[in-house]
Amino acid sequence: METSELVRAVFMKYFTYILKSTYRGQFYIGSTQNLKARIIKHNSGQNKSTKEGIPWVLVYHEEYETRSDAYRREKEIKSKKSRKYIENLLNS
Length: 92
Hints:
Elements: H1 3-11, E1 14-21, E2 27-32, H2 35-43, E3 56-64, H3 67-80, H4 83-91
Antiparallel strand pairs: 1-2, 1-3
């Protein structure tokens, strides 16, 4: 493995995540490379989609090696349009 591949394999992880609003009880699905920073951004009101649901807590995440894989999984979960599907993920 080349050095650049090793660095990417060790440090460059991507995540698909689900947040839950403790205020509204709704879920938000997203993907990111920096999970901690993204949650902070959601809870600071900087994201139009989540501003009204503050505070948000991380309830689920999956780790991927590529951004495209994380984004693909985000779209897959969103395409289900099902709270029950999300709750099943949380309970698995």
